Amino acid sequence: MSAAETPEPRVLPQVMAFNEAVRQCMREDPDVFVAGEDVGAFGGVFGTFAGLQKEFGEDRVVDTPISEQAIVGLGVGSAVTGLRPIVDLMFMDFVCVAMDQIVNQAAKLKYMFGGTARIPLTITTGGGAGLSAAAQHSQSLEAMLCHIPGLKVVCPSSAYDMKGLMVSCIREDNPTILVKNKRMLGDAGEVPEELYAVPLGQANVVRPGSDVTVVAYGRMVSEATKAAERLADEGIDCEIIDPRTLQPLDTDTIVASARRTNRVVVVHEAVRFGGLGAEIAAQVQEEAFDHLDAPVARVAAPFSPVPFSPALEGHYIPDAKRIAAGIRDTLDRPQPGG
Amino acid sequence: MELSADTLKDLHRRMVRIRLFEEAAGRLAEANKLPGFLHLYVGQEAVAAGVCVALTDRDHITSTHRGHGHLVAKGGDFNRMMAELMGKATGYCKGKGGSMHISDLELGMLGANGIVGAGAPIAVGAAFTDRYRGEGNVAVAFFGDGATNIGAFHEAANMACALRLPCVFVCENNEYGEFTPRHKTMAITDIIDRAAGYGMPGVMVDGMDAVAVHEAAVESVARARAGEGPSLIEAKTYRYYNHHGVQNLGLKYRPDEEVEQWKQRDAIEGLERRLAEAGVLSSDEAAEVWAAIGADVEAAITFAEESPLPEPDSLLVDVYSVTGEDR
Fold this sequence. Notes:
The structure holds two protein chains of two kinds. By secondary structure, chain A is α/β, with parallel strands linked by helices. Chain A folds into two domains: about 10-190, Thiamin diphosphate (ThDP)-binding fold, Pyr/PP domains (Rossmann fold, 3-Layer(aba) Sandwich); about 205-330, Rossmann fold (3-Layer(aba) Sandwich), CATH 3.40.50. Chain A has twelve helices and 14 strands. In chain A, strand 13, helix 10 (about 275-290) and strand 14 (about 295-300) form a beta-alpha-beta unit. In chain A, helix 9 packs across helix 10. The termini of chain A are far apart. The mean pLDDT of chain A is about 95. By secondary structure, chain B is an alpha/beta fold. In chain B, a hairpin with a 2-residue loop joins strand 4 and strand 5 (about 180). In chain B, helix 2 (about 45-50) packs parallel to helix 7 (about 210-225) and helix 4 packs across helix 10. A five-stranded parallel sheet of chain B has the order 1-2-3-7-6, sandwiched between helices. In chain B, strands 4-5 form a two-stranded antiparallel ribbon. Chain B has one domain: Rossmann fold. Chain B has ten helices and seven strands. Chain B is about 40% helix and about 10% strand. Classes of the chains: A alpha/beta, B alpha/beta. Chains A and B meet through helix 3, helix 4 and helix 5 of A and helix 5 and helix 6 of B.
């Protein structure tokens, strides 16, 4: 095939990639249905479910009351009796309203019932700051969820992964929580039209490099990539790893990279204390302590609620500049014995 | 409604099964043979039996921390129940759930539940499946009076009504939420007063009268099966024992005379009198039922005692499903 005949890659924003994953899975499997606030005729507050009710009807795309406990309960009860629900919690902050059904029910039934239960439930939610939505509509609460045995937690960073990971979540026989970063929903990328899955639990090496391993997920992948481009001009070669799934975490890929680069920086939008960075740092020192030339560093949000004013929020969310500074600090640290 | 002799005997048998299983569990707990908490259902048998006789194995129920009675009423197996209470590998949950998480999905029993009120939203989900499949099955949520004060109940009741799901809410009003009398935790006397707030009928029944409970259940279940939406049944009943454990008298939060008054209205004795008068079940036949079920309970205790404990390497089994397996 000559270059002239190569078809243009299809480019979609993340919101459309998500929508297409749901649509194609609903066509494929009649047991898949969607329920949540405003998901029907309105199509979801971010347009993530646009047009689905028109195609699949009100029985399969269900507008619910503003009742997060009952929304997740609807998912748990329908999943344990054989359906494959997708339930939407509009903002990740609202996960807190539904915590009993997520933590004590969805995550536990399989184990508590001696394995007899199967909970093929997908919870989707919009996370992340940067829209001046303030402290109750901006949080990144993934670390809380990763702490719960029985749950799987997924944070796509690209349109391609959004579709492929969402397909895996829907097909997964366990409760999964997929976090859409709401500030990235318009970010476009190549998305094949056919139905494909990106497996859960497999990290993606976004950018290979040799000097330092930068672990970032969600919107921080693009910020870390910008930082790496700047640092390349300074002769620093960053490897960027996107775990994509935070629970289960692909520790092997991260550790293998750490053993090669000898330095690790973890970046997340969630607050630093008790975040995924702490877990990743702990696992890296357990598995690669003798390979490290510097402590594992963390670039993350400070320990405060997300502020409202853009003047403050800009200081709150890690960006390429702060990530680059964190990487430089890690590289500037003198080698042991040096 | 004229109940058949078979239905009446079925009600009686299920109630006796609950009573004898629970009394045995209480004795084992007193002898320190059961680990963990034990919330006995004794006294409330008419509710679980009355409702479950109106259901099939394909109908779903969600239960509570006081859940043994619901599983027995749904047809639960004594051996696997007793083994679970003892934390044995042969138990319903392979020793991982215990009394508060006992379940049998094959019978549509979606679990006892350690979180008050949490079963109601799950029942709504099961009812959603039942309607989605269109096979005429229904889901029943059992819960206590105390659970009607928690948000999950209100969300579930409203959602079930808004979506017009085949769901029946059964409140076992035993007058106490754990160790506090109901009148201190709500300003209403009758739980059915809440039903109108969701747009469903509320039906009051005497929870010590298995026939009355059953008749109300038949009506509400029929309504749900016909696509006419949820109902709330309130059954006024009483637990003879403490919130957990086996003490029944001398409790700080309720008078002994009250316990005695309720026992005067014991649901099993009441049904037996009625069945004897109607010529459905003589006292000798009733005694045979008790003896046969008593032997089943003893056999279950032996089975459980002789069963192996779970192997330590089963600790990490079944935290997650293997996707695609056992579908």
